[in-house]
Write a structure and sequence with these properties.
about 120 residues, mainly alpha, two-stranded antiparallel ribbon, elongated
């Protein structure tokens, strides 16, 4: 799906209530578009670990406008499955697709830098 609102509409159809009941959670999943505005933004939250992070952030359940509790994990699973072909990948699924670059594995010991290099 292309916008958190459409995910929220889907949640309202599935769990009851109105889209606004779910919008904050779906916005959270897609906030990473600020950093990378194509499907790769999903690597940051669209996985099992991201779903559990949403649950820690929003609570175990929300109460929708009909007064019914809805598990945040179910809302997160719905969002991720709608965006990831019907499955919930884990973080390793995403990270295993990163092509290693030399700079990724080179640490820098700041003690070996001159004072001028540290300031720049």
């Amino acid at each position: 799906m292309t916008h958190p609102y459409f995910h929220a509409e889907s949640s309202a159809r599935k769990f009851g209530g109105i889209p606004d009941d779910y919008l904050a959670i779906h916005r959270w999943f897609d906030e990473t578009k600020e950093s990378f505005c194509d499907y790769r933004h999903r690597a940051l939250r669209h996985h099992a670990e991201g779903i559990f992070e949403a649950e820690r952030l929003f609570g175990t359940t929300i109460i929708n406008s009909e007064g019914n509790p809805v598990p945040v994990r179910y809302i997160g699973e719905q969002h991720v499955m709608e965006d990831c072909g019907g499955r919930v990948p884990n973080l390793a699924d995403w990270l295993s697709k990163i092509v290693p670059e030399v700079w990724m594995s080179r640490g820098t010991f700041l003690g070996s830098l001159s004072k001028t290099e540290v300031q720049s």
